[in-house]
Structures are given as C-alpha cells and as structure tokens.
Amino acid sequence: MNGPRRVVLITGASSGIGRATAELLAARGYRVFGGVRGAATTRPLAGVELVSLDVRHDPSVKACVDEVYNRAGRIDVLINNAGVNLVGAVEETSISQAQALFDTNVFGVLRMIQAALPGMRRQGSGLIVNLSSILGFIPAPFMGVYASTKHAIEGLSESLDHEVRAFGIRVVLIEPDYIKTNLDASAAQAEMRIDAYAPQRQRTAAAITHDTDKAPGPKLVAEEVLRSIEGSYRMRRPIGRAALVSWLRRLLPVWLFEPSLRKIFALGPSSKGAAVSN
Fold first, then answer.
1. CATH top-level class of 7-245
2. Is 146 a catalytic residue?
3. CA–CA distances in Å: residue 163 to residues 157, 166, 218
4. Stretch 10-25: mean pLDDT
5. pTM for the full model?
6. By the 8 A CB rule, do 183 and 145 touch?
7. Are the CB atoms for 223 and 24 separated by under 8 Å?
8. Among the options 30, 132, 148, 197, which is catalytic?
9. Which of 30, 133, 148, 150 is catalytic?
C-alpha cells in the first residue's frame, strides 16, 4: 500500500465476518480499529487495535469514534458489521424484541454513521460500508423482523449515498447469501410460540439450517469488503447466490419468482384464494 495507511473502523470485530474482515484488512496494510463490546476479553486479532464499543449506546459510540480520531487523526473507511438475528413468525415476536433488534441492526448503524460523518466531511473523503444481506431485498419467512432491519439498511444506505457524494463520501452495501458464522446459532427466538405456525416454522428452520451448513465461511465476505474499498465503486455487492437472486427478483414477475422463493424456505403452496398478483 503506497502512501499513508488508510484508517478503518469496523464494528462487531470480535467474531465472524467482522473478525475475518478486520484480519484481512490489517494484513493488507490498513490501520484497523476493531470495535468490540468486551475489548479486555476479546481474543487478540493480529494487527488490529481493539476499541470498546456498544452500538446500542450513544456515549459508547462517541467514545469509540473519538478514540480512533485521537489515535489516528482520521477515519477513511467505516464498516458497519455489528448485528444480531431473531427467529420466529412476525406474530410471535414481541414489540420489545423487535425494538431491541432495530436498536442494534439499524439505529446502531445510524449512530456510527452520524458519529463518523463530521470527520469524513472535514477531510473531504470517506467510504461507509454497510453489511446488508440477501434478506435485504427478498422476504424471509420466520425471520421477518430481522429482514425488515436489513431492508431498512438498504433504504438508509441508498438515501445517504445521495446526500454525501458532494463531500467525497460514498456508501456501499455488502449483500451476502447465507454465511457460516455464529449469527444463526446464537439467534434469539421469538418470545411467543403459536402452535398454528409450528409445523411450517420447523420445516423452514430445517431448510435454513441445511443451507447454512453448506455455506462458505466469513472470509468470502471479507474479500468482497476489500474489493469494495480497493476496486471500482459499485453500491450493491451481492455475494454468491445473492447475485443471481437479486437479478431474478428484478427480472421476473412476482407470480414466477415467488414459487422458487417458497421452495427455498420449504413453504407449501399458497392457500386457495391467496393468489399472488403484482
């Protein structure tokens, strides 16, 4: 890497995609700050400077960003990776659970963006990389609230990109398919259990587990993040099967696309009288 080292701040760096990305960027020569909730107890990452961060709390976000600026003087790339999952039917999910999920997956991203943008505007450059998902542009039965957070990130990112281009700042969306991490294994379950959903919930969960077990590891996503930083600008970056699904979603009418989608999630045919038109 020629010239001064570019400074990267990544959230959720203790495991999974965040850890793989932090390690890859550090090995590439970036100065990487990894935001983690327990800096003192997190297993060290080679070449990565760990900083305490809880994206759910304003003071923690401010302290983290201030610390990076105090140590490095700038943030060139902000990677919003921290996130949690929630499994269950929409009807089974409590409002408090939904609010908690949005607080991490959406408002956590918003807090980080608002904390980092003033410095990026002053320096006249910056890149914000938001970790979305294939579930940011397709439905996710029995993960509906989680999918809604990723849909929100898609809308937020595209809108923000138009707002900040004049300051030399761009926004990127990384859209992976299933990736083998602890995110699904550690996912919270909806508080309520409604018997009517049980058979379909179990079939869908088995289908998702089957796909996740065969999924690639987080390094695949880390490599796409690196390309988004070093390659030609492209806002949406679907990975793996997500690229094909994204194309089909745009190309096909709903009545052709939905049967394949329902098959992926092991959903039965629509009830009589519930025909899809759009």
1. alpha beta
2. yes
3. 10, 7, 31
4. 97
5. 0.91
6. no
7. yes
8. 132
9. 150
